[in-house]
Structure prediction request, 190 residues.
Amino acid sequence: MTTLIDVFGAFVLGGIFLASLFNLNMTISNSNWETTLDLTTQQNCVTTSQIVENDFYKIGWGDTSLTNSTVSPITYADTSKITFRCDIDNDGKIDSITYYAGSTAALSSTTNPRDRLLYRIVNNKVTPMNVGCTNFKLTYYDSAGATTNILKKIKALRVVLDFESKDPNQDRVYAGLHWEQYIVPKTLHY
Prediction:
């Protein structure tokens, strides 16, 4: 009888041990998945923000037509789209650059219902960036620091980008990140 109790006890203890190992394995797997989502979102944010920041600091760069006080290097500006001129690649030719975020419907290949493509257009060459962008907002400022939408009065801008992972973690939460930068292009003569 004691042998039967020993076998039954070993079976119960072994089951508890296996369940604990299984739970530990699931916890480690979930943690790795969340870390991967966080890291990917952070990398997308850093890479995209570096491109945006570099381009926006160059607004008007190399554009000799700016000596005319009625000409602005920014040719279109609203809260979700900007078009400006500059010599983006230092080749002596003035380029036209546009940034805007597409609709959420255009990016249905991910499980995140809020992400959208961020478009960068250089001289009609469209580069859609699938980086988990959920918000792209622009605010423009004049030399007094007041908001403005008059192209020639724009001397600085604030760029807001929000990012989320393309897939949720085990708790159905998307890894998120917010990036915001106040940019004063040198050629706008703040």
Remarks:
- The first helix runs from residue 2 to 57.
- The chain has one domain: 30-188.
- Helices lie at 2-57.
